[in-house]
Amino acid sequence: MDVRTAIASERRELADVLDGLTEDQWNAPSLCAGWRVREVAAHMSQGFRYSFGRTALELVRSGGGLHRMTDRLARRDAAALSRREIAQALRDNAHHPWTPPVGGPPAALGHDVVHGLDITVPLGLGRQVPEERLRIVFRTVQPSTLRFFKAKLEGVELRATDLEWSYGSGRTLTGPAQELLLLAYGRELPAGR
Question: What Pfam families does the annotation carry (predicted)?
Fold first, then answer.
């Protein structure tokens, strides 16, 4: 599957998910520490709504801290934008060429897939990311990814039970691929997962 096609499909599907959420679900905690579903969804569209120059300015305003900047903007945008505007931003920008500072299109797909799971997993929606998208995103899992997201997986091998994929070495931790992806991106899974 072409990565850009996968990105567009993921964004449209997530916009549909967001359109179907209740107000209580929008205000529910996500897997991103300190963010509700609303902040995660607002964050997902920042790359479309902020020019490079404005992003640089916001980074300076945040003292050069990328995480501080994204947190501040997500909270501000979540308060300013309606649920409909946030979902529509994903839908309208399904083919937008935005990518994170490193990693290119596969990292952009990873951004969308992981943040989509940050929303759908704690809400118990049972959304399954298509295997071909997971395979693309798994190529982004490397030591730098684990460090950036503060994933603590030293001495652990992640091994998917629903597709052929593993990462790392040591004590084997098995589970569904998309849940292992969340661990690689530094997320804590809900109890029982």
Answer: MDMPI_N
90-117 tens-digit pLDDT: 999 999 999 988 889 999 999 999 999 9
Specify which residues 166 forms β-bridges with: 159
- Is pTM beyond 0.70? Reply is yes
Count CB-CB contacts under 10 A for residue 184: 22
Other Cβ atoms within 10 Å of 63 Cβ, number:
8
